[in-house]
Amino acid sequence: MSDTSLARRRTFEYLSMMEIFRDLTAEELQQLDQALAAVIYHRGQLIYHPDSPAERLFLLKEGEVEISRLSPEGKNSSSHASAPDRCSAR
Fold this sequence. Notes:
Largest sheet: 2 strands, antiparallel
Number of strands: 4
Radius of gyration: 15 Å
Number of domains: 2
């Protein structure tokens, strides 16, 4: 099995374990898997800004992210998400 095939199989297995996709058929999961692109972000790197268009779904496979938001009053609130049981849409 090639490295690419092995990576795709692992991604498919990962998707099939996520609660958000539990009702999808194997064919639907495969279609989703084919449409995905893995991106690696580094510590401190901004991955989303509230003014960015809502065009992506982020699935956190490894690590953790800090999600922060500035209220209209100027207060910062933040929370953390850890892989693998969390996902966030934007």
